[in-house]
User: Fold these one by one.
Assistant:
Number 1:
Amino acid sequence: MTLTHVNPDSMHHNPAFSQGVLVEGPGPLLVVGGQNGVDQTGQVVSDDPVEQSKQALRNVISVLESVGCTQADVAKLTIYLAANVDITAAYAASQEVWGRHATAITVLFVAALGRPECLVEIEALAQVPAR
């Protein structure tokens, strides 16, 4: 098995983590690390959970696209929301950015995320199309 760390040029780079990890073996699997609502410089885009949700999803899509995937290739999303976030607003934001791509989803409310100013974090697992 080969792991390729995926860090698109369009995104913030940090030596402590990869934006995604491409797993190649019997069938390529893309593991997208938790994405927050941060821009290319690593700055949180807003204190609004709706705007953070949109940006977090854009970041997931950026990692997907960097290896030839789309939302349709995603098998699972895991969404972590800070305890005070309105899930209805976050869901509406996801429809605007993500579209209607059905996938397995787990939503968890947590006391806080790694960066206190972040209210949303989204992970994804995707099957990379045959090349």
Note: The chain has a mean pLDDT of 90.
Number 2:
Amino acid sequence: MLDHRVEAPVIRDRVPVYSQTFPRTARSAGPSRRAASTVLTAWALPDLVDDARLILDELVANAADHAQGTSIRVTITRTARGRVRLAVIDMDRKRPVLRTVTANDEGGRGLRLVDELSDRWGVDPLPWGKRVWAELSVTP
């Protein structure tokens, strides 16, 4: 059985950060969603919880389906720019593609959902993989 306790957020460079490694499986979406709920509630940002949970669900599912390696890293960062950045880091350099889908397609809508729910999203290449991230605005 996997241990999915939510690790406490830490402060790096005056920016609150939550980070945890999960197995690269679709089952890691559940603990990632719970982590988003816990962390954003602790940061007094309950209005972001629903969108953050859906975004992480899609990013984790994409990594589980398309990446390599046995683990992924999920991070939630409250940036200095008044945003929350949700990210999934995996060990595959292949960039995700925002696809055009038709009504008959059974998949391929994950990044469309991320695009719709987030203020912006992107991919940071890493020497051994990539970080796929999405940002949500923190309303004052």
Note: DSSP finds three helices and six strands in the chain.
Number 3:
Amino acid sequence: MIGEYAQINGALIIGRSNNTDWILEAMNPHGIITSRQENFAIKNVRFYNFDWGNTAALGTCSHCFHDAATDEGARTITTQGFYFDDATVPRRIRYQTPFKAIFKDLDGTLTGLGANSWATFYYRSHLWDGECYYNSTLADVYEGVICGNNVELRTLKFSTYTPSGLFDGMGLKVLQYDDSIISPMNETEKEAYIVDRSNYGSFNWKYKPSKNWA
């Protein structure tokens, strides 16, 4: 695929074997933790035995484990040729700080929604009827939404705002405001929709690299 750089291709990832020890049992590892750069690809990988604690086949954003990490996230990772042993890999993705990674599934073996489908962390603004899905089962397996190929997920960043300091530290609130949502509402219903905080996604502000939201 054009645009790929670093990649993992043709790997067998085993969470634990019969000779596991207490140190591993006390941890919650991931089989693969993705890059904090664009164009990282994972292909032809088989996952087994991630069936304890909060372990998962995939984690996100290497070395972004703390909110003070410099990366703003929202990186896109391409995947294909995955196999998960359903009996021993109940959790496919567990996102890490800053909880914004985007997976593009080229063949549907990650999401089960077919070629060119998507997975990303759950924010209320990501949930669209008939396009991106989320329920208790998906929360356990993917920790987020999965979307079919009738949509595309893209990174959007706001940075270097002025006046400096006015919005420092504040989350960026995002509300679904398409005509199909707003038009059927009367003024009272629209006002109630706008003030209801449960309708918003909130994306964390990052001091580095350039005071931004992604």
Note: The helical segments are 22-25, 136-142, 179-182, 187-195.
Number 4:
Amino acid sequence: MEEIERQAEAVLERVPAYVWDGERLPVPVEDIADSCFGLLVRDVDDLSQAPGAPQLPPGQSLSGLLLPDLGEIWVNADEAGRWPPRRRFTIGHEIGHWCMHRNGSEAVFCRSGTVEPETDPQAGADAAAPSVPSIEQEAQVFAATLLMPARLVRREYARDREFDHLCRRFGSAGAAMGRRLHAVI
């Protein structure tokens, strides 16, 4: 996972100063998708309409997907509207797939539980974590590093250890921030 963190940090180092100065929070993930990778982010009502979308069992949904041929990231509009931190994480997650898992023109589809498991406030604290494929775990680590760079997490934690303040500064869900703090502090 250290190599994945290095890859995400390398992306941040290459972000032009007019997009992000390396200090300002939250990290402008949508601007990075556009300016650094030419990826258009779309909020879409029904991701099952995407070319090649898988059939999902009842009760499951897609959080996001990467369409390399179109140069687009599609984000579940309902989730994005209800939960902006989830939207940010989904975009970072799909950028991770773009950087690490793109296979020609094949689309990458991400179910809700594999983008940022156990963070949906609707699911409750007792929600069971689904089995997450390794490429999804890698994209999670990439997104966490992109949105919550270790250096900035340490800096902000030293300034203010109030958990809710950290979540707001980074535009992060609590579970994602908790995992990131555990990883870097």
Note: Residues 2-119+132-184 form one domain.
